[in-house]
Amino acid sequence: MSEKTNMPEISIKNVSMVYTDSHGNPVQALKDVSIDIQKGEFISLLGPSGCGKSTLLRIVSDLLTPTSGEVKVCGKTPKETRLEQKYGIVFQNPVLLDWRTVRKNIRLPLEMMKVPKEEQASRIEQVLELVGLTNFGNSYPGQLSGGMQQRVGIARALAIQPDILLMDEPFSALDEFTREKLNDDVLSIWRKTNKTVLFVTHNISESVYMSDRICVLSPHPGRLSAVVEVDLPRPRTPEMRATPEFAALVAKVRNSFEGI
Amino acid sequence: MILKKSKSLLNILSTVGLPVLFGALIYILWQTKVLHALFGTDEIILPLPDRIGSIISDNFTNMLPQIASTLIVALGGLVLGSLLGYFIGVAGAVFKKWGMGGLTIVSAFNAIPLVALAPVINNWTRDLSNQVDIRSTVAKIITVTIFCTASMSVNAYRGLTEVKPFSEDLFASYGSGKLKMFLKLRLPNSLPYVFTALRVSVPACVIGAVVSEYFAEQVVGVGRQIRENIVKGQFPTAWAYIAIACAMGILMYVILLIVESIVLKNRRAR
Amino acid sequence: MKIINKILSAKSTVTAVWVLGIVVIWEICAFIVEATQRTPINVLPHLYQIVGSFFDTKPITGGGDTILTLVMSSAAETLSRALIGFIIGMVLGYVLALLMNLSHIVEKIAFPYLMIIQMIPILGMAPIVLSITGDISSARIIIAAILTFYPVSTNTLAGFKSVSRERHELMRSYGATKFQLYTKMLIPSAMSYFFTGLKISAPMAITASILVDTLQGGNGLGCMLSQSLKGSMTRFVFWDIVIFSAVIGVLSFYLMGVIERALVPSKRGKKKKAVN
Predict the structure, then answer these.
(1) C132 close contact with B: CB closer than 8 A
(2) Domain coordinates of chain B in residue numbers?
(3) pLDDT digits 0-9 by tens, C88-142
(4) B187 to chain C nearest CA, in Å?
């Protein structure tokens, strides 16, 4: 699926992040992390709480500035990329505006990007169909279930037609059944749109099921302890979860954690 | 690291320093009569701060009975109102369906103008005693009590009923009865809510005391002195009493905050 | 049977029963007062007497005013000032909250004073404000404005501050301008907090205006109230104004809720949750 070129789409080089906690002590959230991500690749950042995976995602998306090290996205700084509105971010909490309908929630970023009215409408319908919520466009978020709310969050991220989709534990608040359904949905959207995806999760089997590569992060200090290539064929199907290959990969990932 | 430390020091300095500077600026503007020009008033109606200060320090012993009278009314009403409010909250929590409706009514009482309340209550206590000071004090305390009841009852109800999910089930699984559940779960759970209510009713009790004095039979109290002195044209003395009323409000609130921080010390999430 | 149960358990029924209960208790007390007191009208008249007097067509002043027209004209006088003060206080409070959220320096200067205003008895300063302005209408407006100002300001600021980090990050990831951040995220998010402030201050603004009235002669509700107390007109004027101002105070609170529901779409009746 991934089209390998010489220049990586996202290059993370020797990134470290230190912040001070409430007692004034320095905490090393990330230490010397380097990852190259190719265009169209599906990459997971996997690790327990405190390993710095969300911090890394926020550094890539210019929501945080690293203490040292450098991130380049297509040769540009994260800030430039953010201002070009090439990032679509999906948070753990769908962060929907409860005073707007589903349609108007998806319209929010388009309003800011000054997309013409007619195009706004067509894009909204397009992404609504992609996430299977065409009939719920006029509902308010408060009327939707957690899984549907997260679909709206994904649709909103896709509406700006980003080059890179950043997902920060998007399904961790959902039950297992909804989560697996959404895993398949995200994979099919990814196949249709061919975006680069950076996917943060603490669920091992989810990361194996979804990714091309898994970057395993270990805590104290947050560091990259292994990169696991997932060679399962695409498209992935729910039956694969029961195969020995899948189990072997899960075990391999589990064994690569350090110091927990 | 040194940079970080100096940054936080700067932070503290600006948090304390900026408001103090602003206060000093107002003080200077007042003392140099710029404020008078701004409001188009004179030194008689708006006396200089040092004059107000000297009146308080010269007459403090004479002012003490007035302060005591207001304090008795404010604290008496606060205590009675809080107890009554808590009791109503308990009743509401025990008889949930009907209690909720009652609380709606009680919170509506909150919106009734205090000025309408005070004279009515004066009428009620007229035949209570031959001594004007007793019946007048009772009337004022009742006014403040009513003024302080609503916020406590609503908050107490919430504190008694909004327990952590499943904790009722947990207690039921221990086979504990309603009384035990009340004493060991609901009562402690309501404590922070009680302080939320007090943050509203402590300032309210001072306001209630001051305003009820305006309508009281007996001419006594800090609030009444403000009004009487203005009627007599003694503006500096009126200002002195205003300053005292403000100081009472601030002092009681600060005491409340200290008590709250001690009582709820271990409750706060770290 | 089922319908009866449904009616009995409805929230409005519960409230109605409570109101009825209060009326009954009032009437019982009124009967006791009537039997034991020399001047029951001063202590507790019957509710029907109060309501009846309100619509009595007999003029009570030299000018031929009935109680109804008198109360209404005084109410117009007082409440219009309360409303002006309320609007001024609301606008100033909102602007201060905005400035405090925009600038750390403004926040640091103003916040302690907002806290202090909260602790001091502003109503106790009504007489001095009246002396400074020398004009009852401006005094009403100023006191109402101050009492509206700080609940609106503190609550709106709390609303701005309560916007979650993720909501900020979402806007930042879109490269939103400050203007967009405020108009599309912060201001709508803080709406319910703003209305909480308005609900607190609306009855207070009315109380303040009536209180200022009582300090001086004139045409306001409070002026009539104190004149009636002094005996220069029938006691029913007093009772009618008490009931009237209580009702207006409560209504002003509910009115804010009605306006909020009209303005904020997600506050309009929540429909049933859809299932996934």
Answers:
(1) yes
(2) 39-263
(3) 999 999 999 999 999 988 998 888 888 888 888 888 888 888 888 888 889 999 9
(4) 26
- Give the integer Cα–Cα distance in Å for A1 and A16: 31
Sign of CA pseudo-dihedral C172, C177, C178, C181 = negative
Q: Which of A20, A21, A28, A67 to mutate to test the interface with B (most CBs of B within 10 A)?
A: A20
* CATH number listed for the domain at residues A1-86+164-260: 3.40.50.300
- Contact present, A57 and A71 (Cβ < 8 Å): no
**Cβ contact, residue pair A61, C185, below 8 Å:** no
Nearest CA in chain B to C248: B112
User: Residue with structure tokens 């070129």?
Assistant: A5
Which one-letter DSSP state was computed for residue A39? T
A24 touching chain B per CB within 8 A: yes
CA distance C190 to C264: 11
CB < 8 Å from C in window 52-81 of B? none
Nearest-angstrom CA–CA distance, C216 and C224: 10
Q: CB distance B203–C120 less than 8 Å?
A: yes
Domains defined for chain C, CATH in brackets: 2-44 (no CATH), 61-266 (1.10.3720.10)
Chain C positions in Cβ-Cβ contact with residue A101 (cut-off 8 Å)? 265
Amino acid at C168: H
Second-level CATH architecture of B39-263: Orthogonal Bundle (1.10)
| Residue A166: closest C-alpha in chain C | C173
| Residues C112 and C162 sit within 8 Å (Cβ to Cβ) | no
Stretch(es) of chain A classified as CATH 3.40.50.300: 1-86+164-260
B133-148 tens-digit pLDDT: 888 899 999 999 988 8
User: In degrees rounded to 5, what are phi and psi of residue B48?
Assistant: -70, 150
Percent of chain A whose predicted confidence (pLDDT) is above 70: 97
Q: State residue B115's pLDDT score.
A: 73
Do A94 and A172 meet the contact criterion of CB atoms below 8 Å apart?
no
pTM of the model: 0.85
Q: What is the dihedral of CA A146, A148, A153, A154, to 10 degrees?
A: 130
Cβ burial of C24 (10 Å; 0-12, 13-18, 19+) is exposed
Which two structure tokens, joined as six digits, stand for C12?
């409005």
Residue of C nearest to A182 (CA): C276
Residue A6 to residue B214: CA distance in whole angstroms: 85
ipTM of the complex: 0.82
CA A248 – CA A254 distance, rounded (Å) = 10
Using 50, 70 and 90 to split pLDDT, how confident is the model at C190? very high
Q: Which residues of A touch C176 (CB under 8 A)?
A: 112
Compare CB distances from C121 to B97, B115, B206 and report the shortest one's residue.
B206
Secondary structure of residue B60 in the 3-state scheme = helix
pLDDT at A4: 47
CA–CA gap between residue B133 and residue B130 (Å, rounded): 9
Task: List CB contacts (< 8 A) between B5 and chain A.
Answer: 24
- The C-alpha atoms of residue B230 and residue C242 are separated, in whole angstroms, by 26
Chain B CB contacts of C99 below 8 Å:
none
How big is the A-C interface in CB pairs under 8 Å? 76
Residues B115, C120: C-beta atoms closer than 8 Å: no
Q: Report how far apart, in Å, the C-alpha atoms of C22 and of each of A200, B106, B172, C30 are.
A: 60, 11, 36, 12
Asked if C209 and C81 count as a contact pair (C-beta separation under 8 A), the reply is yes
- What single string gives the DSSP state of each residue in C43-73? H---HHHHHHHHT--S--STT---HHHHHHH
Q: What are the structure tokens assigned to B249, written together?
A: 């409000």
Q: Are the CB atoms for B240 and B59 separated by under 8 Å?
A: yes
* pLDDT for position B80: 96
Q: pLDDT tier at B206 (50, 70, 90 boundaries)?
A: very high
Q: What percent of chain C clears pLDDT 90, i.e. is strictly above it?
A: 30
